[in-house]
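SEQUENCE-TO-STRUCTURE ENTRY
===========================
What this section holds: a protein sequence and its matching fold, both as plain text.
Tokens: labelled as protein backbone structure tokens, with as many entries as the chain has residues.
Question of interest: how does this chain fold, as expressed in backbone structure tokens?
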Amino acid sequence: MSTADFQDFTGNMTEIGPMYPFVGWEWLLTLLCFVFWIAWHFWQIRIENREFKEEADKYVSKEVLDRVYKREEADPGV
């Protein structure tokens, strides 16, 4: 498979042309990756905060706290 019309590599490489697709688009692709990376972090933080709140509501209910408090009163060495 050939990407240009040449016979050997003894010539000037700048005469061959682009060596990979989308030459000149590097800045846009880098910007898109950066935006996606920042958006992913915001999305991940929102998910983790929601999961933390759900678990905190589940495990730190008044009944659980009362049970722990009564157990500590009964055995202060624990």
